[in-house]
Every structure is written in structure tokens, then in C-alpha cells.
Amino acid sequence: MKRREQSQTEQLRQALSEREAQLQEAQARLAALEGSTSLQVGRALTAAAKRPGRGLVRLPRDLFRLWRKSGTTRQSAGGRRKPQPVRSYDAERQEARLLAGNIGNRDDRLVVAGVLSPEVHAAIEPYVRVIALRPQDAQVVFESVDVDAVLVSASAAATGSLWAHVGDPSSGDRTRALHWVVEAAASRGVPSILLNDAPAPPALTTLPFSLVHDGGVGVPLHRFNPIAAEPERRVDPVHLPSVGNSGVVANRLVDMLVRDGDLRRADPGWAEEPATLRAATTVVVDDPALADRAMACGARALLLGGAPDGDTADTGRTPDRVPVDASALSSGAAAEGLARVRAAGPLSSEELRLVLRSVFLTDATPVRLADILGRVDFAPGSGSPSASLRIRQVSVTAVPTDDITSLAFADDILKQEYAPAEIVLPDGVDHLAGVARLRSAGIPMRTVRGVDTNADAGGAPGPAAWAALAREATSPWVALWRAPRGAAFLTDVLCAAECSGADAVGPAVPWWGSGASASADGDGRASALDDAVADQDYVFVSAIEPDLARTELVRRGLQPGVWNRHGARLLALGPQPDTDREAEPGQVGSTPDAG
Fold first, then answer.
1. Is residue 226 within 8 Å of residue 45, measured between CB atoms?
2. Which residues contact 290 (CB under 8 A, 6 or more apart)?
3. What angle do CA 249, 347, 121 make, to 5 degrees?
4. Beta pairing partners, 264
5. Distances 498 to 356, 364, 470 between C-alpha atoms, Å
6. What is each CA distance from 558 to 62, 506, 512, 513, 568, in whole angstroms?
7. From 542's CA, which of 136, 257, 264, 481 has a CA 20 to 30 Å away?
8. Which string of DSSP letters, residue by residue, matches 114-175?
9. What secondary structure does DSSP assign to 434-492, as a single string?
10. Do strands 192-196 and 238-239 pair parallel, antiparallel, or not at all (unpaired)?
11. Burial of 47 by CB count in 10 Å (0-12 exposed, 13-18 middle, 19+ buried)?
């Protein structure tokens, strides 16, 4: 009750200050208007019109006096100080926003005022609009912007950052600045969230946050991914330290492995960490979150300590674990586990697909943000907590021609691990059995008139048909369905797009100009280049058969063979072998078979 009264008082105080500013502006404008010559001339003319007898006689005299007064004012104006222009209240607020550095194009993302470490800032930047708060101007910036939430990471209190040691008695000014931000947010009805992603001074958790989340922001797949990883990785295992305290036993195990020559240490900065993981075959860590990031980059992880997680036992994300206790120092379990993981090599393509699917669906940064923001109450008129997931929405387009094709399409869509936002079909297919089945399942559906359903030479719809369907799609992505691809079809292509930032994803095909170039040069260099990437996934290529593309790109109606000439980034991702076969529990993982 006390916080609610404080919130209402703060809102009334802010409204009163705004009204006073507007009143002062109106009074200044009124005074300037009453003192203007134009108004006095108008009054003289009005008085003369009301009393024509006397008014017309006095009008020349009154106008002459105004003229003399105006001339005297202009002559003496040079020796007097010019009056300051009347400043608008809206102009004052726009100037404050400009000085705060927060002028920019608005978008559909949530607006978050952040006290964040550089790593957390880079992780959430693609999914929310971050307005960074600094200790020296936190109050000015926060008062000049409208935000949906306040997000504070404990890692921002690390040494060397702007908010270093916030919450510590030695940094009372920074703690007071952050406390003011949290209380001001509460007075507006804006939730404030603390991410306990690193050890922090205890006073930080005592601030009146709306929510304290134990953990980080998940795995940012746009940073930790296997995109363009070299086929040949370093074979020597590498140890990456965690942010928190590893423990005495874990540190001694690492020291023993390094002393025996089985392990090398690496301590890259947060910016170089993804490249280090992509270049490694085996990674030794003591943090489960770091193990997930290593496996998302294609490396095999050995986790020191931690209890098995039953939720990830069947997803390929169960790394080999070594218990961290006193017996591990004398049993040699760490060396044996490292030898097994090292012998297994990096993750296979099937294992990597399973890992990326699991991370994409459960622990990627947009999923974690939606979960965290969904646990607080937003102020009326704010954005949706699930706004970070909008960039994943996909519209599935297809051109079924008969009942057999439509039933195959319906079966493929209904078993997808990641449900589409909508389905876009040409008009006149409502009578097909598969379309009726999709409607009965409650999937949103759109139909488009005038779609050319004639197939091209390869038996698939042409670019004009896909473009007509994409023009009616409302999602940022369009999936082009041609044949059944399995339950993980949408998950795989959307995950690849999120990892790479590509404009289109699909199997690599020979570039349309490679044959001509080869015949002209006589050396087949272009054809050799196509063959080099034909069997590789998660690499950028010259041409693909698109399975997923940005809606704006498909709407242009271009042949996919020339998309790269128009600036599109094309990522190769072939179909997963045995897509319809369900993985057996424990079949794929980071622990090799004992036999």
C-alpha cells in the first residue's frame, strides 16, 4: 500500500510539473502577443468600426502613434538585450532526449533501460532495444525516455565496468544512483529485474527489484554457433574458466590435467570466446551454461561437477561429467573422462543438430528473455513480454495440387516441433482433404487469389507464385514447403537463420553461373568451389534452394539463383538424414559409447 501511494504521488508530482511548464509557456506567448504591433493595429481598426463617427476621425492619429512607437522601439532595440525566444515544453523534452543520446527509429522491440555488462548487452541487443544507463547521467536519461522494463545484471558490477562495485559500501554514489532508478521505475509501474549471472556485492540484491532471476540470459545463438567453423579443429583440449567461483576441487583437477600435459588453459575475453570455442575440439568447463555454449559451437564438452539434468538427457546436450569431490583427486576420473571425450572428437552433424534444436527451443536468449519478462507485471500500454520471439515467427507457404500432396503437407505441419504462425495457400484449395485437416486443427490460414500454380521445369512453383503468397504473409520469415521434411524442419531452418543472420537458408546448389565460368576459363575453378561446399552445412554459399527466406526477399519475385547478386546472404543447410526417425534416449550425446 505504501508503494502504491508513493507511485501515485510521484505521478501527480510529474503531472503537476508538466502543467506548470505548459502554463508558463502559454503566459509567455500571451504576453508576446499582447505586446505586438499587429494586435494593437487590429484593436484600433475594431474600435473605429464599432463607432464610425468618432472612430474614423481618431483612427489616423492612433495609427500614427503606433507607427512612431514602433519606429522608436526598432531604433532603441540595438542598445538593449534581445528577448529570449519562447521555448516549447515539447522542444525541451526532445532536447533532453537528444542530449541523452536516445533519439532513434522506433521499432517493435521492447525498450529496456539497462545496467548491463558488455557481454549481456551484446547478447540481448538483437531482441530488445537497450538504453544504457551510466552512473553520471542515469537520472537524466531515465527521466527523458519511456521504457518497458529496467534490467540490471550482476556482472555489470565487475571490476573495470562503469558500474563497478555497485552495491558495495565503497561505491555509495553508484548504489544510490541505481537505487533511485529502481524506485523511479516502481513509481511509474515499470518492472525492474536483477539478473544474478555473476557474484556481486550483497547490497545489490537488497534493492527493491520486482524480480531477482538466478541465472543469465541463456545462449545467444547469434554469437555462439557453428557458422563458418573450420573443418579441422585444434585437437588439444582447452579449459575455459567460468565467471563464478569454480571451487577448490575443480581448480585442483584442472591444475593436475595441465601439469600432465593433457590440457591447455585459455582465458579469452567475452568478445573472443565464440571464436575460441569454434576452433576447439574438446572443452573442459565447470559451468553448465558454458558447456551449452561450447556444444552450440560444435565442440564436445567435459563438465567438472554438476548433477545430471533429466530435461536434457534425450536432446544431445548431456556432456560427460566428472564428479567434483575428494575422491576425484585420487581416482583419475578426470583424466579418463578427458581421454574419452578427446577420442570422440567434435560433435557430428547429427549431434550438432540435436544440440542446436534443444538450445533453440528451450534455452536461447529470446526464449529466456520471454520467460523472465513474463514473470513481472508490465504497466498498461507497454509491450508484450513475448515480443522477443516475434523475430522467429514464420509463415508456411505451399501449393498443394491434390489430396495426396495436401495430406502430406498437413501431416508434416502438424508434427512440427516449432509451430508456424500461419499458413498461406492459393485460393481454390479448400476442398482438399489436407487443407480441411489443417483448418480443423485451428492453425491460422490465409488464401491468395490469382496465384499461378503452374509448376516450373523442376516440378515446383515458380518465383511468381511464391512472391504472390509471400505478399499476404504477416511474419518476418516465409518457409517454402515443397515436400515433407520431418518434424524438425522449421526448427532447423529458423535456428540456422538466428545463428547466422542470413537472409535465406536451404541446401546448397551449384551457382547458376558456375557452368559458364568453368567452360570459359577451362579450369573449372567455380565448379570446384561449388563441390567444396556441397556437403557442408552452416556455411555461406553463392546459391541455394531456399527452404526459408525473409518475407521481403521472397516478395521481390526473383529467381533464387540471383539472390546473392542482389545482396542476399545465403546459408547452406541440407536436409537432416532420417528426419522421421525418432532419437532413442541416450543415443546422441557428448559421451561416447563405452564399447
1. no
2. 240, 242
3. 70
4. 238
5. 11, 10, 20
6. 76, 16, 13, 16, 11
7. 481
8. EE--HHHHHHHTTTEEEEE--TTTHHHHHHH---SEEEEEGGGGSTTSTTTTTTSGGGHHHH
9. HHHHHHHTT--EEEETT----B-TTSSB-HHHHHHHHTT--SSEEEE--S---TTHHHH
10. unpaired
11. middle
Distance CA 121, CA 124 (A): 6
Quick one: 53 exposed, middle or buried, by C-beta within 10 A (0-12, 13-18, 19+)? Answer: exposed
The packing angle between helices 172-188 and 2-34, to 10°, is: 80
Count the alpha carbons within 13 Å of 494 in the hemisphere toward its beta carbon: 30
Contact in structure between 230 and 188 (CB atoms under 8 Å):
no
Give the separation between CA 429 and CA 311, rounded to whole angstroms.
41
Task: Tell me which residue of 358, 420, 368, 366 sits closest to 551, measured CA to CA.
Answer: 420
Say if residues 503 and 570 touch (Cβ distance below 8 Å): yes
Q: Rounded CA gap, 280 and 206, in Å?
A: 41
- Residue ranges in the chain whose pLDDT is less than 50: 1-6, 74-87, 89, 93, 96-97, 100-105, 310, 313, 514-523, 525-526, 529, 579-595
Angle between helices 514-521 and 525-533 (to 10 degrees): 140
Considering Cα of 135, then 141, then 143, then 146, what sign does the dihedral take?
negative
Question: Under a CB-based contact definition with an 8 Å cutoff, are residues 254 and 284 in contact?
Answer: yes
The gap between the terminal CA atoms of the chain, to the nearest Å, is: 65
Residues 511-532: tens digit of each pLDDT: 655 444 444 444 454 455 455 5
Other C-beta atoms within 10 Å of 18: how many?
A: 12
Q: What pairs with residue 446 in β-bridges?
A: 424
**C-beta atoms surrounding 310 within 10 Å:** 8
Neighbours of 15 (CB within 10 A): 10
Q: Is the pTM of this model over 0.85?
A: no
SS3 content of the chain, % helix, strand, coil (to 5): 45, 15, 40
Q: pLDDT tens digit string along 372-429?
A: 999 999 988 788 889 999 999 999 999 998 999 999 999 999 999 999 999 999 998 8
Residue type, 177: A
DSSP for 305-370?
Answer: S----GGGTTTT---EEE--STTHHHH-HHHHHHHHHHHH-SPPHHHHHHHHHHIIIIIBHHHHHH
d(CA 548, CA 554): 9
The residue behind cell 593433457 is 262
DSSP 8-state assignment for residue 544: B
